[in-house]
Amino acid sequence: MKISKALTMGLSEDDIRNLLALDSETEMRAVRGDKLDESGYINLSGLKWFSGKGYGHENKWLPTVMIEAVRIAIERLKALSADARHFAKLLESSSDFPRHKLCPDVPNDQLLTRDEAAYALGLDLSIYDSKKALLQNRREFLKRKGVPTTDYQVTLNDLNKIIRDSLPEGFPYIPFKKGMGKVKLKWSDALYAAHVNTFTTLKPICYTELAIPTINTLNEDLAPTRKKSRSTGGDLKRTLSIFQRWNHGDLSMTSHQLRHMLDTIAAVNGMEGDLRAKWAQRSDPKHNRYYDHTTPEEYGADFLEDRERELALKNEASNHQIQVQIATPRTIQELNTKASLTAHTTEFGMCITSYLSEPCTKYRDCINCSEHVCLKGDDAKCDRIREKLKREEKLFKQDEKAVKDGIQGANQWLERRQITVERCRELLNMMEDPKIKDGALIKLSSVEDVSLLDRAMDANGKKRLPEIINYKRVKRVSVSNLVNSKDADVER
User: Which range marks the domain in which residue 111 is found?
Assistant: First the structure.
C-alpha cells in the first residue's frame, strides 16, 4: 500500500515508521532523512472478513503490536483444524470412502468387524480404559449411526453413504447465515473447521462429523454453564468455564463486552468517529454512541486541557503569567468535570470535590469520603472528630447486638459502621500525631469509593467497564506498574 493512502486512512507518521521498522529494506527506500517518502510503499498485515452489521467485506488492518500475536494465533488455528480440513478435502476430491487417520486398511468391499466399523466411522476406541466402557460406547455409537452391532454386517462402501448423508447442509460450503449470499467458504479452507466434540473433554471426538464453533461456543466458555443434566435436572458439575478451570471462581463475561471496551478505549484515546466505525465495521457511524462508555470525568479532563491550551495561547501573546484558571460551563461535557475548583468547609475539615457536575454523592458522610481533607492543628474540628468516634463506637455496639439477635439487615450496618470507626480512629491518630506539623493537610484515601449510585447498580446487577487509561495524556508509564499496581507510577 502507498504511504500516501495509509496517511489518508488515518495512520500517523509514527504508525508508518513502526511498520517500516519491521522491514529494513522497505524502510531504507521509504525514509529520506527525517521525512517519509509518500510515494513509497509499506507492507500491512490484516484480516479479511465479512461484517455481520451490513458493512460487507473489509480488511481489518492490524496494529504493529498485534501482528506477531495474530500470526501465532493463525498458526495454532491451522494446526487445530488440520484433521477436519483434510477430512473435508477427502470428501470433496473423491466419491470413495474418505480414508481418515482412524480408517482401517481394508478394501472398500470387505465386511468389517464391529471395532473396524467404529473406527471407520470416526470413534477412537483406544481412549477407553476399561472393556466395559469400550463395549458400551461402541454399541451406543453404532446404534446412533444406524449400523448393526454385530460383526461382518457392513463394508466401507456402506459406511461411505452413512457419512455423506450426515454432512452439514450445503457441504462443501459452510453455511453463513449473515453472509447475504456473498460468502463462499469451503470446509477444507476454513481455519475454524473442527470435528464434533472437539471442544469438550466429556465426549469422544467423532472424526467423520464436521462442526464449526459459533459465538455461543465462546460465550459458553466465558461464563458458568447454565445447562442442566438430562438425567438429574441439576447443574452440570463437570462443565467448567475458562475462569473456573483456572481457579478464578464464577467470573463471567461475553465477547460483546470486549467489543464495547475496545471501542471505549479507542474513543478515550482520540480515535475519530468515522475511523472507529470503519475499524468496527459498522455501516452507520452513528452506532458508535452505543459502544462509547467514556466517563464524565474523562470528558471533564478533556475540557480542562482544551481550556488550558486556549488560555496558554492568549498568554503567549500578552506575556502575562496565568494565575487563575477559569472554567465557565457552556456544554454538558464542560459540566462533567472532576476539577476541584473550590473548597467547602465541613464539620470536620474541607471538601475539595467539585459541585459543577453533581451534588454530594456521599450525602455528607464526610468521614467515608476520599474527597475530604482535614487541617492539622484545628482543635475545634479535632474535638468534633472525637465526639463522632464516641457516637460511632456506641452505635457499633448496638449493631453487634442486633446482629446477634438476628435482625435482618443488621450485618450490613455493622460492616459499614466498622469502617467508619476505623477511619475515625486513623484520622484522630494523625490529627494528634506530634510528628505532623500544624497546617498540614490530612486526607485518607483508602476508603472504598462507592457512591449510592454504585450501590444501586450493584443491587440491580448492572456491570461497569474497568478503568480505561488515556494514553495521549500519559507521557511515561511502566508496564509492570500498569499490570501489577493500581497506583501506577505515571508522569503527566
Answer: 83-213
